[in-house]
Backbone:
């Protein structure tokens, strides 16, 4: 992993985001430039409203910036079409959200396989990989449970398995422990640290200093700007 740290995997160039409601313009990001190298574990920390989730959504191409650009392995994405952005997301990124974002009508296994189906059209023939990922996060007995039949920690582990199904280069996690108790949060952080130990690049938004301290590097935001 250390041999790859010179590779610029993800870079933001003067990234800004503004929201307009009527005549009122709110600046969420005010020109943020950062660089993430392959194999890094980076935490983005800040108070509520500091712009950390907005930055994550811009970096992961879930939303478009008002200005600036996001470079993925040197590719400028500002002019990418919607379909080009979707293809890049599905092939390069995995996502873990605070609210799990599972489809309530799908089983744990079906939720895990959904990004793979969206990317390749492969479903039944790829189910073995989904089973393997759920076993990896300790849910081999929950394959056919619906989200409503799972605890919060179990739902988050399903979300992690889903994020890994397309073998991403970067895993984004937006406040992944915010809705979990302390023991379950430790379990989730343990999974992240194991993934990072195997070379996966992780970018995690958190407001919890004890978790950001476990990253290799912390970027602190305040009022849409880098504070540290």
Residues:
């Amino acid at each position: 992993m250390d041999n790859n740290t010179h590779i610029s995997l993800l870079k933001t160039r003067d990234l800004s985001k503004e929201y307009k409601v009527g005549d009122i313009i709110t600046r969420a990001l005010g020109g943020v430039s950062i660089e993430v190298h392959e194999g890094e574990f980076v935490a983005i920390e800040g108070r509520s409203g500091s712009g950390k989730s907005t930055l994550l959504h811009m970096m992961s191409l879930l939303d478009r910036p008002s200005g600036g650009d996001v470079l993925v392995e040197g590719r400028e994405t500002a002019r990418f079409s919607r379909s080009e952005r979707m293809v890049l997301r599905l092939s390069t990124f995995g996502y873990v959200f605070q609210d799990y974002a599972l489809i309530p009508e799908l089983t744990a296994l079906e939720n895990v396989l959904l990004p793979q189906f969206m990317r390749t059209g492969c479903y039944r023939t790829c189910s073995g990989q989904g089973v393997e990922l759920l076993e990896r996060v300790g849910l081999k007995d929950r394959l056919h449970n619906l989200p409503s039949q799972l605890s919060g920690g179990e739902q988050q582990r399903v979300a992690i398995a889903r994020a890994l199904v397309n073998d991403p280069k970067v895993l984004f996690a937006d406040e992944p422990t915010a809705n979990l108790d302390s023991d379950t949060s430790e379990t989730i952080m343990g999974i992240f640290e194991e993934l990072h130990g195997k070379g996966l690049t992780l970018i995690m938004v958190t407001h919890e200093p004890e978790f950001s301290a476990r990253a290799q590097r912390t970027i602190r935001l305040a009022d849409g700007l880098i504070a540290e």
